[in-house]
Amino acid sequence: MILKVIVLALIGTLVAGLLKQVKPEISIVAVIVTGLIIIWTILGEIVTIKTTFSKLFESSNVEGIFSAVMKIVGIGYLTEYASSVCEDYGTSSLAKKVQLAGKVCIFAMSTSAVTTIMSAITKLV
Questions:
Q1: Which of 23, 32, 34, 95 could form a disulfide with 86 if both were Cys (CB 3.0 to 4.6 A apart)?
Q2: Do 61 and 120 touch, CB atoms closer than 8 A?
Q3: What are phi and psi of 65, to 5 degrees?
Q4: pTM for the model
Q5: 81-123 pLDDT, tens digit each
Q6: Last residue of some domain: 16, 31, 59?
């Protein structure tokens, strides 16, 4: 799978580079589409990982925490991807705002995990 991703990335980079010389405004579309194809390619692995961990935590009381952590990781990855695209096209100001928004979303999502942990601790005490 990683070889497929590397080949896709190299082809996308080549296409974007060629388009940047001819039609610079369209080259960003090539980068975004290539990124989406790569995400689609690894989606099966992501689902497998989520399913495996869901089954592992299903029988315990930490399933809610696991769900929150998975969402936080997803937000982190999406934020990093969007920020990188912004950086690649010279809009570092937008990239920083995407990063800030991602951090705020992660902080907001973490409150539910902290609440669940505090509830579990309170029950133990």
A1: 95
A2: yes
A3: -65, -45
A4: 0.68
A5: 899 988 888 889 999 999 999 999 999 888 877 887 787 788 7
A6: 59
Provide DSSP, 43-70.
Answer: HHHHHHHHHHHHHHHHTSTTHHHHHHHH
| Residue 98 CB-density burial (10 A; 0-12 exposed, 13-18 middle, 19+ buried) | buried
The residues, any chain, with a CB within 8 Å of residue 111's CB and separated by 6 or more, are none
Longest CA span, the chain: 67
The total of structural domains in the chain comes to: 2
Q: What are phi and psi of 62, to 5 degrees?
A: -100, 15
Residues 17 and 74 in one domain: no
Residue type, 125: V
> Residue 8, Cβ neighbours under 10 Å: how many?
16
Q: Could you tell me the residue range of the domain that residue 82 belongs to? A: 61-125
Helix H or strand E segment including 38: helix 24-58
